[in-house]
From TrEMBL:
Entry protein name: Annexin
GO cellular component: cytoplasm; nucleus; plasma membrane; vesicle membrane
Region (Disordered) location: 1-61
Pfam families for this protein: Annexin
Entry similarity comment: Belongs to the annexin family.
Annotated organism of origin: Polysphondylium violaceum
InterPro entries hit by this protein: Annexin, Annexin_repeat, Annexin_repeat_CS, Annexin_sf
Record-level Gene Ontology MF annotations: calcium ion binding; calcium-dependent phospholipid binding; phosphatidylserine binding
Keyword Nuclease included in the entry's annotation: no
Domain remark from Swiss-Prot or TrEMBL: A pair of annexin repeats may form one binding site for calcium and phospholipid.
Family annotation (Gene3D superfamilies): Annexin
């Protein structure tokens, strides 16, 4: 006798999070899930009200360890196994946080640190490295109201180098910061493909909607138009997929998982040559929950290679980097960002822009990222920063990481 199996499976809700509330629907994007509104933080002008999030320290324990630990022991998907729900980071909008400090007092501390001769860098670090975005934004507003000065301009006049860059990043509205990175990476000669793929892979639909809005403040052309102009070939196709709303549901069609795993094999290792369009379509459009299961099914069916290794052997250049990045991110956002941080500090010299970008934008996940970094590389993230950075810049990053 045979047992009829479900064709779709709903993944269980994440543990440790309150029931999700509605996020205002946005044109061209499916409704985004949010969290209960935070207290004491008014909506930013020109943006829909932001949703608050619980503190990031309580990473659910039900998820598999980050850091590239092989996922073993899974029976065939045909038996109804659905795998794990995604780790935190997949379905969140920009992390806002809660106002729990006296922001007016913080503004006073910053004013005192920059007033007169010299600058008290330690005081600046103590405040800005230890406040969430809701607090940093309110500090900016309080500073302007109390002293009639723009805090970012004051920071720029009193600091320099990577220390200044990191402080300005901390004080820039998150979607505008992402938009600025993308714009600066595409204008002028050459394109910063690494920044482009890192942002487009890891930002969800609500975040991408806001990035597109912010990008329009910087350029008369849309982000999509810029990407079309600055990229080419199959890499362009993948980037265009990533600019479109990705499926963010937690419904998994087991039959489609099996089909996608086989289609990827037949488009790559199972034939002479490579059908790149199959890879860009599946990895660019499917939900991360779905893709994680596809990767597990691929490895179960084809013992020689994981999907990651198959991509590594079939592709090259930026397209290979982006496709492997998607597979890793689907498995664990902690692992993905840990590997990005390692790339920023590996070898001779440091890619400070990549290091700053990752640490500032992922502050709320830094505990899990640092844990994954330690697991993969056998050393702490703080040790790596201590080795590669110096001065007040190093002190600021270490105060943000502080694990």
């Amino acid at each position: 006798t045979s047992t009829r199996l479900p064709t779709t499976t709903r993944l269980p809700p994440q543990q440790g999070y309150p029931p999700q509330q509605g996020y205002p629907p946005q044109q061209g994007y499916p409704p985004q899930q949010g969290y209960p509104p935070q207290q004491g933080y008014p909506p930013q002008q020109g943006y829909p009200p932001q949703q608050g999030y619980p503190p990031a320290a309580g990473v659910p324990q039900a998820y598999p360890p980050a850091g590239g630990v092989p996922l073993t022991g899974y029976p065939p998907l045909g038996a109804g196994v659905i795998g794990h729900a995604p780790v935190p980071g997949y379905f969140e909008g920009y992390y806002i946080g809660f106002i729990t400090h006296d922001t007016k007092k913080d503004a006073e501390v910053l004013r005192k640190a920059m007033k007169g001769i010299g600058t008290d860098e330690s005081a600046i670090i103590k405040v800005l490295a230890n406040r969430c975005w809701a607090e940093r934004d309110q500090i900016k507003k309080d500073f302007s109201a109390m002293y009639g000065k723009d805090l970012i301009k004051e920071i720029k006049s009193e600091t320099s180098g990577n220390f200044e860059k990191t402080l300005v990043a901390l004080l820039t509205e998150p979607s505008l910061y992402d938009a600025e990175i993308l714009y600066e990476g595409m204008k002028g000669a050459g394109t910063n493909e690494n920044a482009l793929m890192e942002i487009l892979i890891t930002r969800n639909n609500a975040q991408l909607f806001k990035i597109n809005q912010s990008f329009q403040r910087l350029s008369s052309k849309s982000l999509k138009d810029w990407v079309k102009k600055e990229t080419s070939g199959d890499f362009k196709d993948l980037m265009e997929y990533l600019l479109e709303p990705r499926d963010e549901s937690n419904i998994v069609d087991n039959a489609l998982v099996i089909k996608d795993a086989e289609d990827l094999y037949q488009a790559g290792e199972g034939k002479i040559g490579t059908n790149e369009k199959v890879f860009t379509r599946i990895l660019g459009k499917r939900s991360f929950v779905h893709l994680n299961l596809v990767a597990q099914e691929y490895e179960r069916r084809h013992k020689k290679h994981s999907l990651e290794k198959a991509i590594d052997s079939e592709f090259s250049g930026n397209l290979r980097t982006a496709l492997i990045g998607i597979v890793i991110y689907a498995r664990s956002c902690f692992e993905y960002f840990a590997k990005i941080l390692n790339k920023s500090m590996a070898g001779a010299g440091t890619n400070d822009d990549k290091l700053i970008r990752t640490i500032v934008t992922q502050m709320h996940l830094i505990e899990g990222i640092a844990r994954s970094y330690n697991t993969i590389y056998g050393k702490t993230l703080t040790h790596a920063i201590n080795t590669d950075c110096s001065g007040d810049y190093k002190k600021l990053l270490l105060d943000i990481v502080r694990v």
